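pasting for ref
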Amino acid sequence: VSIDEAGNVFGLLSSSQPLTAKSQPLIISAHTDTVFPLEMDLRVKREAEKVYGIGIGDNSLGVAGLVGLIWMIRERNIKLNGDVWFVANVCEEGLGDLHGMKAVVDRFGADVHAYLVLEGMALGHVYHRAVGVKRYRVKATTRGGHSWSDYGQPSAIHELSKLVVQLSSMELPKEPRTTMNVGKISGGTSINVIAAEAWLELDLRSEGQASLAKLVADAEKIIREANKPGLSIEAEVIGQRPAGEMSANHPLIQLAMDCLREQGLDAALTTGSTDANIPLSKNYPALVLGISTGS
């Protein structure tokens, strides 16, 4: 067991057979971070057939599945034909920008059987396509002033609000699915002060690389053209998840579908933004499987 500079934890379960020069490892990972801050109540509540609690589905169950798989292999004395690396990785959520998985893929590269990513929910789904994402922090700056005596001066909050209206008015294609979201907005000093500063965080994503590129170009143009005398608006890239996909006919994807059916589950192909974005964007064999159902 080891920990890398990024904070990822690696555990190696060695092959039961002598390794050859052509032997490739299987990488199984689950992200340890959650969307919720440490200060939140982490107590768990159980009712009937459901368990409630912050971060259980995303992604405590994935990590539990990672450890449970090691136990199962040992308990059933399963003989491995190659090395299996179990990775509890970091920085999947929020502005982590898949920093942990980037380090994992940098370490192993293309010389693997596959990257198998475990997520707590979406049982019965096989993620084989990665949604491309680009994220910005957009900051507006003005002179500010008093809401009465300096009325007429541009307000950073007012101008950002106009910008949000323009961004949300963009025509987005339904196929490939493409979305735009302003998830956070903040700024200002007081109720009677013209805001000198304000900022927002913008999330752009699409199943299609060309559609994402067009969305990014259109959004950047709107932001650029919002600048005017007395108002400065700057956009900083704070996250970028590359798109990618494996053919539904790839043997790895077909194997995953067969495994789910073997468990009596309806198997469905789907798309998402996960740790698998990194290997899929490099055309390395990768997929995501869910452990349970929930929301």
